[in-house]
Design a protein that fits this description.
Chain lengths: ~280, ~260
């Protein structure tokens, strides 16, 4: 009797979570009719079509943007997480809440906040014009750096938390031992702290990277029409081009890519664990 | 190492300055220019008179309320079931419940759009609620299941040993312990639902625009200081909600630690 309590959730997730992806997979083998209707069938055309130089270029852009974003987020989040992990307990909680609050604020609003700052009549240009440093407004928005800035900004909390968790768990005695043996601070950091926080770095990076490759709102709001990422292409196939089969096929590619990355992460973690057990 | 502290303050400033700028400019008289031209509440006033905003707000509230009720009940029941009984493939099913957390939202929204169109289900508040419940379930389950695991089995066993019936045990012991996490998940799901854009964007019908979808439209159409006012209100409400949820969760956590 009691076991039935978990049934509704299972049914719900099978119908509204699993089934939709099954449909998406099926449709990815269909063809698009002239009016955007679905023509049932089985062909891999949509999958091959992705290997057009146009889409491969966008894939490359997406991967580069995701990579740069992940590295930048890591470089910003690490010192912050490190600082928080060294604070007294009570202060740690306060800092964590402060850093995590933006995570809950709509990221549409967070990206838009940058539009106010960067647009041609925005805060930065207004200040620079007033100070007489520039005569014409700079175009700070609707380009790749703006997209990258927006992604870094919206994804930062996802990195801080896993880093903090692994820095928190760090065995201080190992650092003390290193110092006793005459290590300089940066040596202790390089040989002790960094290797021991690898799991946090890997988890944060995988979350940020996977989130980046599926992103479409930030490029939409901050990148203008030129800065297209894979997410924007998928969205366009569904809403503008009305080519659902092709959009589904790209979605499946995206899912495969994400799955590979997550699987690699687990493999690396297992490998790391086995190495540790041996030592 | 000395540089860490100023650097951290700088990063926190980087996180907050854009939002503070947005909030400040919601009181700026100027329509297009970022230069300060005087304090005004005009944008808030016109916001409150904007029928589309009020419609979107009422849609958002309705969807969030329904989502909260459905997701919390289903999630809480499931969490209790998983805590109380051992299933076949127990951890596999549990992993399945968490799965919506890691799937890119874009793909979840699109796959639901496909499902609804295949079954000719008209897009509207109903489809929004279905979608929101789907992505909220893992959060409810996570919060309540964690709490149950933290509580352990001893408390319930002690009550039974002292002669309480299963019903009495549930209502006098388990439910009171769970109450804070149920409240926390109610607030959390409500906030998640109010805030969601990506999934809602694909499954909302033309007559069921939610606030975030309306904001997206405003951003796309061009700059109106009304967005600043609306965004400011949403930021404030989000912070208040999260603060209350966190406060309740901590209070409950402390209570149990004291009793156990």
């Amino acid at each position: 009797m009691g076991k039935l309590m978990a049934l509704p959730i299972m049914f719900w997730l099978i119908i509204f979570f699993m089934l939709p992806f099954v449909f998406m997979l099926i449709i990815s083998f269909y063809q698009r009719g002239i009016y955007g209707q679905l023509i049932p069938g089985f062909s891999l055309d949509n999958y091959w079509r992705f290997f057009d130089s146009l889409y491969l270029g966008i894939l490359l852009d997406t991967l580069v943007v995701a990579f740069v974003t992940t590295i930048s987020v890591l470089l910003i989040a690490y010192p912050l997480a490190y600082y928080i992990s060294r604070l007294p307990r009570a202060n740690q909680a306060i800092w964590l809440v402060i850093v995590m609050i933006p995570f809950w604020i709509n990221f549409l609003i967070r990206s838009y906040a940058w539009v106010i700052i960067l647009r041609s009549q925005g805060l930065v240009n207004t200040i620079l014009l007033k100070l007489g440093i520039i005569d014409v407004p700079l175009s700070l928005l609707y380009n790749w750096p703006a997209v990258m800035l927006g992604m870094v900004y919206t994804l930062l909390p996802f990195m801080v938390l896993p880093l903090y968790v692994s820095l928190e768990k760090l065995d201080r005695r190992k650092l003390e031992a290193a110092y006793d043996l005459g290590a300089r601070p940066w040596q202790a950091f390089w040989h002790i702290t960094l290797p021991l926080t690898k799991p946090g770095i890997a988890l944060g990076s995988i979350i940020v990277f996977v989130s980046s490759i599926g992103m479409f709102v930030v490029p939409d709001v901050m990148g203008g029409a030129k800065s297209m990422l894979l997410g924007n292409v998928i969205q366009n196939q569904f809403l503008s081009a009305r080519d659902w089969p092709f959009g589904s096929a790209i979605s499946v590619w995206l899912m495969i890519l994400s799955a590979i990355l997550i699987a690699l992460y687990y493999k690396a973690m297992q490998w790391e664990q086995r190495l540790e057990d041996k030592l | 190492m000395k540089i860490l502290r100023p650097l951290s303050y700088f990063i926190v400033a980087f996180i907050y300055i854009p939002m503070i700028v947005l909030m400040v400019f919601s009181f700026n008289q100027s329509r297009i220019n970022a230069a300060w031209s005087g304090f005004t509440l005009d944008w808030y006033r016109s916001l409150l008179e904007n029928r589309f905003v009020l419609d979107a707000l009422s849609n958002s509230m309705l969807v969030a309320s329904a989502t909260t009720v459905i997701a919390t009940i289903m999630g809480a029941f499931a969490a209790y079931g998983f805590y109380k009984y051992q299933f076949r493939w127990h951890s596999l099913w549990r992993g399945f419940i968490y799965a919506p957390l890691i799937i890119p939202e874009l793909l979840m929204g699109l796959s639901l759009l496909i499902l609804f169109s295949q079954f000719d289900i008209p897009l509207g508040k109903g489809t929004l609620i279905i979608a929101h419940v789907t992505f909220s379930i893992p959060f409810v389950f996570l919060i309540i299941y964690d709490r149950l695991i933290e509580m352990g089995k001893e408390l319930e066993e002690a009550a039974m040993d002292l002669g309480a019936s299963p019903m009495q045990t549930f209502f006098l012991i388990t439910l009171p312990v769970l109450m804070p996490s149920i409240f926390a998940s109610i607030l959390l799901v409500f906030t998640l639902s109010l805030d969601d854009f990506i999934i809602s964007f694909f499954v909302a019908g033309p007559n069921s625009t939610t606030l975030p979808i309306y904001i997206y439209g405003m951003i796309k159409r061009g700059i109106s200081p009304e967005i600043n006012a609306l965004a400011t209100l949403m930021i404030i409400f989000t912070i208040v909600f999260i603060a209350i949820a966190e406060w309740i969760r901590r209070k409950g956590s402390m209570k149990v630690n004291k009793t156990s």
